[in-house]
Amino acid sequence: MKNPQKSYLGQGDFVYRHDPVPVFVKAHGSVMEDQEGHRYFCAEAANGTTSLGFDGTIIQDAMKKMEGIPSIPSFCETSLRLKISSKLGRKIESITGKEGKVAFELGGAQGMELALRIAKANNKKSQFVVFEGGYHGRSIYTAQLSASHRYRAAMGDWRVPVIRLPYPDYEQSGSSLSKTAWKKQYIAYIKTLLGRETGGMIRRGAEQDICALILEPLLNAGGIVKPDLDLIDFLVTEFRKAGALIIVDEVFTGFYRTGKMFGFQHYSFVPDIFVMSKAISNGITPLSCVWAQDPLLLPSHFTPGSHSATFINQPLGLAIADTVFDRYESWKTINTDLKNLERFLKSMIQEVVRTSPLVTSGFALGGVGRLLLKKDIAGKILDIASTIAWKDPVENVHGLILASTGMASNVIAFNPPLKMSKEDMRIMRLLLLKTFKKANVQLANS
Q1: Residue 314 is part of which domain span?
Q2: What is the pLDDT of residue 1?
């Protein structure tokens, strides 16, 4: 609920999009509790951040690792950073079969900016290519990459040279073509962009001027869009031919959100550069990590002093990341558990599709799912869900926190903790069905 006392807090962030605004005082597992005692099942896991659930033992274990070094100047090295970089580096090498290096930053936007800095240090071409519906942060620089103009409008009319590929969601494309025909048309258009100066990608003489293709394995803010596998592989091949580096934004999809360690594993290519954040610290402290294939981050290509930030070697964040990484590595049944979670999400989503006249379709992949609505009413459904069981709690749970996708107001997203018990799944399903039973009546004519 809104705090009745005078507030000195600015209300320009996501928290104040909806009313009421609960003030949380506790969180454990999949449940958060507000100061009035209402308990909420969190089906959005801080937008995929708290993939291991709300677990205070992570920070307790991390604190033990940094007892001897509580802080350090940014221009000094720590054994913690060397340790976690080695663990991540070995893991990524085992997945990709490629040698590379990692570098750390704070949030996801800062990680994306570091990726762009690495790309520009290694490729002097000028333009970046992204998807319509793509989202890569809200900092002054990364907002230029993100699709929504409202992220850029406040900063004036300066522009990073960005070219946007058509929205890769066949279901929402409005096309009357079959999916096969739509994909052929899409590919033909890309070939035209790459081959003619009219597309803005080449200089005279047919020399493409593209520094990097930047993509999300699954578009998050753009509507939980799962691009066609063949389409992505085609784009990667063609843009590499054009001399572009391939940057993958794993801020949302990394650390098993899509059922695999990284989202790009669903495709047949290895990126030149990719960015991890959110789940790398389970949402406890800001941290991001950028991996780049050799030689992109070697000193001969990215010289010492090319990158600096005050807190990129802060012991707390690195100790938490090390602890989180170990939790994933010790999760021996992770593949089976994630398949079970995917089956649960698919079953629950299809039940809503069958029973709600408000819904067009839905799908799930690993620990993420989407419901495509017939109207732009996602925000209204989120409001209903948040207080759906205040009068009639489900196993002492009063509300359901769902995710919206920012740029797609006709999409509801599911990003629950990856570690869910059968009881968690039962509660989540009952709350969701209860939400849509009410929404079917209230929103039928909206």
Answers
A1: 61-329
A2: 44
